[in-house]
Amino acid sequence: MPAEWERHDATWLGWPHNTTDWPGKFAPIPWVYGEIVRKISGGEQVRIIVDSAAHQRSARRVLQRVGVPSGNVRFFTFPTDRGWTRDFGPMFVRRENPHPEVAINNFRFTGWAKYLNHTKDRLIPARVARKLHIPIHQPLAGTMPFVLEGGAIDVNGRGTLLTTEECLLDNAIQVRNPGLDRRGYQKALHDALGVTNVFWLGKGIAGDDTHGHVDDLARFVNPTTIVLCEEKNPADPNYRPLQENKERMQEMRLEDGMKPEVILLPLPSPLIFNGMRLPASYANFYIANAAVIVPTFNDPKDRVALGTLADLIPDRPVIGIHAVDLLWGLGTLHCMTQQQPLSQP
Known about the structure:
With about 350 residues, the chain is an alpha/beta fold. About 25% of the residues lie in helices and about 25% in strands. It has one domain (about 10-340): L-arginine/glycine Amidinotransferase, Chain A (5-stranded Propeller), CATH 3.75.10.10. The chain is globular.
């Protein structure tokens, strides 16, 4: 699986339609998506999944009004339940020799082992593969289809993968692959993604509906550098789990045995809406060809996070996207997007 910062052929994104993801707050969401497409489409095609011709017309009207060139967007009419393309969309892998090509891993999607409305979403990888005439593989965990969401992992493209025990190893809450232990996961991840080195963090952040996705917690920004979220307030529920993850990072080694450089990334002040703690995190950024888009939250730490990421990813602009409304859906920029790498690096 190539790293996210490697050149893309396209970015996949599901245009929003399920109003229950943003109850009482859906109206601004298509406009946030429009701004995201505008920033990404400057360097690659954006492939947008829509439910119907009417849904496509609605999306196109938004994109035209925010100034997205129509030639940089391609629509695919595939019915979906929701819009979190990172988790149910096609996860691409690449073979470089002897004949370069990309393929899709058809991981099983079970609605985060929580929601019943996922039967349309789980068909998307196969539909994309058929439409693009791309090979598709069925990853296994032992003898069973391997359940894995894209937000549960992050890779450096050289053999190391980040994930959390809370998401994949918890046997009581939102269980993805019942009975699969650490060793079984490491073999399944190796077979499906080519990784040779899996590093396990502990818990994810407070408010995370996925029960521990790593893309709100820790991310590679280059093959040897990781940004890790930090909470400095001892009274905050994130403080202790993030301190534990920081300690684990001290023992981490990359695929070549070297220690990674770990850079701390602040969390914004707690965001509460309708009595609920929301999973606000700057780590949910997305690295596109033309820009790094980063969720921002009307917080003084926005500037710190943007500056930190700009220093670490100097080859493309780092741009903030206002994500307070988006976060009511319990995910932001990385959760919405999925990269399709070039067949040749």
